[in-house]
Amino acid sequence: MTKTISLLGSTGSIGKQTLQVARELGLTVAALTANTQVDLMEQQIREFRPRLAVMMDADAACSLRARLSDLPVQVLSGEGGLLTAATLDEADTVVTAVVGSVGLRPTLAAIEKKKRIALANKETLVCAGELVMDAADRFGAEIVPVDSEHSAIFQSLQGCRDRSEIKRLILTCSGGPFFGKHHEELEGIRPADALKHPNWSMGAKITIDSATLMNKGLEIIEAMRLYRLPVEKVDAVIHRQSIIHSLVEYRDGAMIAQLGTPDMKLPIRYAFTWPYRATSPDEPLDLVRCGALTFHEPDTEAFPCLRIARECAAVGGTSCAIMNAANEEAVMAFLREEIGFNDIPRQVERALSRVDVKYTPALEDILEADRLAREVVRNR
Ligand code: MG
Known about the structure:
Elements: E1 4-8, H1 13-25, E2 28-34, H2 38-48, E3 52-55, H3 58-67, E4 74-77, H4 78-86, E5 93-96, H5 104-112, E6 116-119, H6 122-139, E7 143-145, H7 148-156, E8 166-173, H8 191-194, H9 204-212, H10 214-227, E9 234-238, E10 244-250, E11 255-259, H11 265-273, H12 304-315, H13 319-335, H14 343-354, H15 363-378
Parallel strand pairs: 1-2, 1-5, 2-3, 3-4, 5-6, 6-7, 8-9
Antiparallel strand pairs: 8-10, 10-11
Residues 147-149, 219 line the site of magnesium ion.
């Protein structure tokens, strides 16, 4: 069980909810990291009193240092600071809640220090899942997923003694705000439309990924890596209510699922308390009042990102890293209103056609694929 955490990405949606759970469970916080939000960071530090704070942005680090001169907290900046936070001796658990492939190096560094990884950065497993899982095996580090679907699968696998009994994993997908629309109808979508998620409140990047269904594509790859299964054994089904968080289908036909209200605090709490469970202060799911649960096939014509992700998963090598980096860049361009909604999958496919795939890549090959894919999208 977790006693002391290092939280990478404390001012984002998962970061804030992690601190709520830390407060509730009485965890010690050794380090907090953020990009640029100095105000919120100062507030969090005054409450949780970590010994280390990191701002990715150097100017933000300077201004935070000045504001906290009355406290015995060290303030660092940049990727070096992030690595220090990920490897602090006193933290037994590292929560990786940063967005994007910037989470990769610190996650690997924390694994080498045998930390429990409460993994909330799916891009890490998408880009370098094999490297990360091999390192976790080699160093004996526990990886406990915080992503709600993967936590649901993790919970549904607790009684499973032999992984060959798994027939397939079924990830549920809310369908996002544009469920039922045709591809052409999505052409004129603006960021403000896409930022309205029906069930979950999340950061901008993942909300857009949920609207394009790229989020589910990334999660299929994340599940393949976490549970070492081929893409044929990982499916997605549209479930508009977000009550069933995912399922495991076993070879005898049994389906084991985890249900609950859509609240990230449950998977965060479980990542800290596993293999035990703590009492939640929140209202549990009311089965009678939650209404009918429905399921639909995903529409990969309207939402090509899901098809692209499955194709990359089948190809393997650096193709998932190329896809992920191109998607990050395309989503940012969409948020700046420089490209349209349907240009996101177009840019991803363009990057995939222009950057060569390397099979059995080393970390450097993955980082290079990430860089080249970003370049393709930036120079569109
Ligand atoms: Mg998820």
